[in-house]
Amino acid sequence: MPQILQRINAPQFPDNYFNITNFGAVAGDTNDCSSAIELAIDACVRAGGGHVVVPAGEFLTGAVHLKSGVDLHLETNAVLLFSTNPTNYLPLVFTRFEGTELYNYSPLIYALGQKNVALSGDGTIDGQADDSNWMAWKNTKSRATLVKMATDGVPVEQRRFGPGFNLRPGFIEFNRCENVLIQGIHIRRSPMWEIHPLLCTNVTVRGVDIMSHGVNNDGCDPESCSDVLIEKCLFDTGDDCIAIKSGRNNDGRRVNVPSVNLVIRDCTMRDGHGGVTIGSEISGSCSNVFVENCAMNSPNLVCALRLKSNAVRGGVLQNIFMRNVNVGTVKDSVLQIDFLYEEGAKGDFKPVAHNVVMENITVAQTPRVLNVRGFPGADISGVRIYNSTFKQIARPDVIQDADVKLVDCVLDPAK
Which of 15, 93, 370, 382 is 20 to 30 Å from the Cα of 327, by its Cα? Predict the structure, then answer.
């Protein structure tokens, strides 16, 4: 872990400041400031980089596309309200939807192939997503259409969605970027995944406050990234708090870029499916994940550490370490490994979980410690929990086709 941290350095920016109000932005929830923000970003780039400043007040915008050398900085009491009109997220951009490449509506904040980019400050970004707009798309059949196109080997250039397909955009996506910083901001009402670094290197996510409970509202999803630090963040989400990804099925194997060298520390997790999750779109594999000094507590938090895949997605998940984590209560279990997720054993790609180690985990209340489900064709091995205390246990563990051991642990049943 120290070697990884030595390589992770947040980008620095010149002392050039470009207030969006100087480029025509007017506060209020009916004035479209998209053009003003774009002009400010372009001026910042021409000056050699710096900070595009959103001052106190509410500013309405469509998609914001960041460029190299630009820090989009929201001052205290600044709010970027994002339009819920899908036409404000055209033209289509190259992205992924749940691990599959396509062209779709632009994420609300997006950067492609940029270097030294940031989103910072003490302000709020508000996607305004609810059941009257983006969330009405949550059960679209287009997801299955996209997955079939990838299975059939349809070239990515031909996977064009957008109008008529109702695939929701993500909130923040840095795609194929280098030296990324997301710091301090408050995230509310996201249409889909909230923070999505994709095929990036040297990523820092620090001090972010996420409270967004919509469907598929994962907090932070590093996908096919290397050298990632997530620290001092608050997650209160409608899906996994942190979910590490590396592509889905054949698409993930085609791109073949794993997620490697991730450090997660000093974070707080409340509601969510998993505190730290690896999968399920993990076909490109994942290794070297270090989690420490986190606090997790919610009756709606399903588990503390969650690994999920199946025989269609496959992937090797190895060298996963969690230590010094204080858990109040969880809904299902402390450790969940689910290799029977969705398609389960019906596939040709063996999922592997190896060398998963938890140490000094303290849990005040959990229905059970383990919910681990493999199958004969899978490999779940070297899973160990050391020197940990689990209280108020109400149900037996589930361990199916897996090598799991608890060593020097205290287990107290519910009275």
Answer: 382
